[in-house]
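FORM 7B: Structural annotation worksheet

SECTION A. Query
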Amino acid sequence: MDKVVYIEGEGEIVEKKSRFIGNCYPISSEEEAISYIEAIKKKHYDARHHCYAYSVGKTQPILRFSDDGEPQGTAGKPILEVITGREITNCLVIVTRYFGGTLLGTGGLLRAYTEAAKVAIDSAEIVEEISGIHLLVKSDYQDIGKLQYIYRDEEIDCYDIAYAENVISDLLVPLEDVKRVTDLLIEKTAARVTIEEGEECSYFNTDGKYIIK
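SECTION B. Predicted structure
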C-alpha cells in the first residue's frame, strides 16, 4: 500500500506575527510540482518566502526541497521530513511565509515550517492506495449468499455484483493476495465458481466508496 493525497489541503499557523500558509497537493511528476509552485508564487506574490518539498514516484522516489532564501536546513528539509515521515508518495507541500517583523532564529523557523507542513497535510485527505487486480468470480445464484458472507468475513473488497444468467462478482484484490483469495473461494464453494483475472489497477476506499485509478 502507498499513502497518497486524494484531496488537496491548506492550513495556516502564526508564529510571532509571521504567517505560514501550507498547501498540500497530489502530484504525478516534477513538472506538475513546478506548476503548483509557480501558481502559489503568483497567488501570494507579496510573500517573502515560498519553501517547498516533494516526493514523486513510489519505488525510488525523486525527493526535492527548497529553502527559498531561508537559512539552510530550516524550511525545505523539515517539510520533506514530514512528507517522508508519514510515508506519503506523489506529494507536494508548499509553505508560504509572510514575515511578521520578528526574527525567529533557526530553531524557531525549523519548528514553524515543520508545523505548517503538518497542518497542510492534516487538512488534506490522505488515502492508502493499493496495487491490485479485478478478480471476476462467476457463480450460480444459489452460492451468492455464501460468497457475500465470505467476502465480509475475509474482508475481501467486492466492487460490484452483476446479475444475469450467472452472478459475477467483481472483486478488488491486492496483487499479493490473488492466489490466496482464488484458492479460498474455490475451496469454500467446492469448486463451484469460476474465477478470471481482469485488469490490474490502483484503488482505494474513501467514505465507503472504491475509487479506481
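SECTION C. Observations
The domain at 130-212 is CATH 3.30.70.240 (Alpha-Beta Plaits). The chain has two domains: 2-123, 130-212.

SECTION D. Sign-off
Analyst initials: ____
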